[in-house]
From TrEMBL:
The lineage of its organism: Bacteria, Pseudomonadati, Pseudomonadota, Gammaproteobacteria, Enterobacterales. Pfam families: DAO (PF01266). This is FAD-dependent oxidoreductase. Residues 4-373 form the FAD dependent oxidoreductase domain. It comes from the Bacteria. Keywords: Oxidoreductase.
Amino acid sequence: MNYDVIVVGSGAIAGSIAYELASRQLKVCRLGRLDRSNAASKAAGAMNGCFGEVTSGLVASDYGKLKLKMDRIAKDRWSIWAQRLVASSGDTRPLFTAKGTHVILNTAGMAAVDSVNYDAIESTLREYNEPYEVVDPQSIKGMKANDLVRSLKGLYISEEHALNSHILLEMLDAAFLREGGEIVDNNVKRVLTENGTITGVETVDGARFTANKVVIAAGVQSLDILSDQLSIVQKIPPLFAGYGVSVLLKVKNPDELPTSVIRTPNRAFACGLHCVPRGDGVLYVGATNLLSNQPRTHATVATIQFLVECAYNQINVDLFEAEVLAIQVGNRPISADGFPLIGECGIDGLWLVTGTYRDGLHQSPLLADYAANALMGLPNLEIDLGDFTPIRRPLIGLDRDMTILEAAQQTAAMGYECLWNIRPGWNELIHECLLNKYRAQVESIDAIYTPPPDLVAFSCHDEQITKRLRDYYNCWKE
């Protein structure tokens, strides 16, 4: 049970890193439950969303622009990556299910969020000379929105596709095994060390596996594996769960299934409403995003109701009669400052690759190559992710005032997406109340550091999130 590298996790990032290392002739073992409970990859729409994920907040900081650079590099790698997976796995099923991405601006949201982010997407596309075209939303195949939330404008991003996440995970498993890798269907409890150097891992049932290099890419549960390394883990931004629900629908008329991704700009702390064709009359619709201290396993009635109502109102009213084939739940890993945790972390030979939030599956080919190069002592010439080293002071995206404003606007966007009908004057009152609430929350957490808007809003209802933020910030006080 001695390996060159042990990879912990069974999602898209862990699977990609393990496959890349095995394809380079290293002896690799990947550990993680194959039922992938709580994993983000399992419920993902698997959009190759780069520019479609842009928000005004993302491009407002250097760290956000670095994330955008990661997305751009990853987008350009997917074609070759998919060919490699087919060749290694022997699985010839079509991986991509949607051609291009339509971004729609509709009346279900609010101008301060939807219009601003829609404009940020278009201006960023122009800035990077990315091909796109302006389209009439009424011409998009699969669109038949309720007139109350009709689309006003639309963009078509021709080089942002989507794939079937279930097929991707199966391909990664098969490709890894055929490259000589070994899979252990068991979760890891802790890492093993000796004199400050990694020696291996121990599973939840006590089995031990040895290696002088270990990569933890277990999503939101990655830091749990380091819980007995307190001096290290307390200086790493804690991870929280972005609980998301998606549904697979069997549409009544398969001929009307869209051929592209259809999505709104990011809103209400989520990746916008989006639908992705899966073939055979099946439509993926996602995804919600509710932050919590611990991963969640089951969908709530309220979340499912909200999602399907958004789908048949904003995408196609005929989805009201679609059949629900599956309800999927995943947990995205969001760090305390909103940025990824990538790099060696306090123990020689121990690496973390997590905290990617909504971008992990899309970035997996890039992260696989980046991690493999670093582990093998090879240079990464295309991008430097040193800023995202796991042991770090909180990185600053938006300043405090902008963070509070963003949290208030995104919270209000939830109401507008639910089509609330408030009388004139109340929206200003609600906005002012939210600003005051979130300012008080931010100041109660720390006098200097400010968490991202998502965590500001959800920490108001979860004392454990607040406590973990305070503990982390206190570790970095002068």
